[in-house]
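Before a computer can learn anything about folding, someone has to put a protein's shape into writing. The three-dimensional part falls to structure tokens, numbers that each stand for a local backbone shape. The protein below has been through that process, and both of its lines are reproduced in full.
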Amino acid sequence: MKLEHRIGQLLLIGLPGPQLDLMTRSLLQTIQPGGVLLNTHNIESAQQVYELISAIRSLTEVPPIIAVDQEGGRVDRLKEVFSPMPSADLLRAAGDASIAARMGEIAAEALRTLGFNTNFAPVLDIAADDSAINGLKGRYLGGTVAEVVRLGGAYLEGLKHGGVVGVGKHFPGLGNAIVDSHAELPTVDSSRDQIMKHEVAPYMELFTKINARLDSVIVAHAHYPALDGPAPLPSSLSRNIVTGLLREELGFKGLSITDDLEMGAITSGRDLSEAAVMAIEAGIDMVMIADSDSHERATAAWEAMVKAAEGGRITRSHISRAFDHIARIKATISPPHPFSEQAVTRLRERIAELNLTLQHSK
């Protein structure tokens, strides 16, 4: 594989619309990204999404990660295709791990019916203040490590049983953030001991669970002075956090992905292309640039990463390690289900039954 396509495998990009225009086709063929994230603006109907994903696959030489943020509740990208899925808040109120597992299984079937293979869920942040304006309101599975591990683990088990990769977020934890990283860089002032016993603890437990093992994580954009010192370095660009904490201290051997680099936590203080190179240097496997109009930014980041690789700043060992982690995850991915409108109708019914079960469990 040519160097530029090897670098493309380290990118996870977004697309501008529900169909592939000529510019987007060219982008996919040129970069050969390792992954694609679809969002609400890419989704109109079940048939349209299935055809869009099929077109993406036809233009990529290596089968890509095809991902979506399908948490349920406020972050429900497929609610116009199927039916609205329950929120984390509802699962938390019910406190029933078997319902969380069933929701994971239903989500997995829904995703594979459309052609997806990866779900950017569950949220593993622990609620500290449910009213905090940090972008996580309604998305917490619990306010304790035990709650989050029990429900998040059951949901992961359901996804895994259904053949879809679940991705835990946002490592090392945003529950104590008081601003939204979509707008600016949060600072989490917890001590190292608090971070390890609270924010990081769900990851530590789920990295070792057999049936619900967490093999992929999204790394947050937040500053942790106790882990990184006073300079406001985002965790997604921090070697101390990505390599030192996640890889070496916790022994994580799975896939690490940045949160979207187009968020204000990054762009308010750094050039996006430089941030992409810094993320790989820090030990990240895949860089996410997934906004709806990110053609130029994704291309610029890719070109900066290729240049950094040619100059030795991104080393062969960086690329080989990322390739190993990406390949390991892709090897666990199941193929899409055969598409049919009958399957979509059946899924709508199953989601309606799940919502009814949750209403009765209150």
Q: What stands out?
A: Residues 58 and 342 are 25 Å apart (CA to CA). The two ends are 54 Å apart (CA to CA).
